[in-house]
Amino acid sequence: MYKSKKNKYNRILLKISGEFLKSSNESGINFLFLKNLISQIKLLVKLGIQVGLVVGGGNLFRGSDLEKIGMRRAVSDQIGMLSTVINALSIYEIMKRMNCQSRIFSSTTIGGICEKYRLDDVNQALENNCVVLFCFGLGVPFFTTDSSACVHGIAIKADIFLKGTKVDGVYSSDPNINESATIYHQLKYKDLINKELNVMDYTSLILASQHKLPILVFNMSNPKILYEILLESRQVGTLITE
Ligand code: UDP
């Protein structure tokens, strides 16, 4: 764990599904969601919390969807990963406008857009209260941004992996289909695997479990959720530990 000072969690890895950036307006980007997200992050940073952020690309392209229309999976996944670069750049731009310092790191060099990942540079940025935006996933196909969030969370020794979703946490079955589904407030990594709860891919889960990276699955639609989790220490969502 990153050395704690005053907050419960001092260094976080936040992952947000690209779905949250989806918008029906002409720009194609949900500016209101991002504005709120960045306002929350700004305050957290001000209070000494270091933030690494992984944003998915599902609002633009997912490899599995492109594969269904006949594209090769490896190429489809590259398109998916490029979507995360577009999202990171949009966030960077809005952060700049809102005076929230950030840097974009990627596993691949895209000149003028993102810096090449180097752990020391990432740590230095975090220590300088700069939000680190990780994009282009792990740079290889057949993975998801959940996997890259776990890898980056482990590498930066994040205190927790915050997985922002559209549901309140992990349920016994899909709450949109089964009205009697109940939420779990706490789970072990192995429960998720044994109960076949479809929250994130097994690769990410196994990685998190091997490196004891706690995961909190929570509803990112609540506009004050990061404050509730990080500043008010509220028990929300589902906490997954060993
Ligand atoms: N992807 C990949 N390798 C990675 C991370 C992501 O190939 O290491 C691709 C994959 O095609 C994925 C897409 O990038 O569908 C977008 O990521 P993801 O589906 O995780 O986004 P989200 O659903 O969280 O918005």
What would a concise description of this structure say?
With 242 residues, this protein is α/β, with parallel strands linked by helices. The chain is 36% helix and 19% strand. Bound molecules: uridine-5'-diphosphate (UDP).
Account of the protein in words:
With 242 residues, this protein is an alpha/beta fold. It has a single domain, classed as Carbamate kinase. It contains 8 helices and 11 strands. The protein has a 9-stranded mixed sheet with strand order 4-3-5-2-1-6-10-11-9, with helices on both faces. The mean pLDDT is 95. Bound molecules: uridine-5'-diphosphate. Uridine-5'-diphosphate binds next to helix 2, helix 3 and helix 5. The site of uridine-5'-diphosphate (UDP) has 24 residues, from helix 2, helix 3 and helix 5. One of its GO terms (molecular function) is ATP binding. It comes from Buchnera aphidicola. Its EC number is 2.7.4.22. Homohexamer. Pathway: Pyrimidine metabolism; CTP biosynthesis via de novo pathway; UDP from UMP (UMPK route): step 1/1.
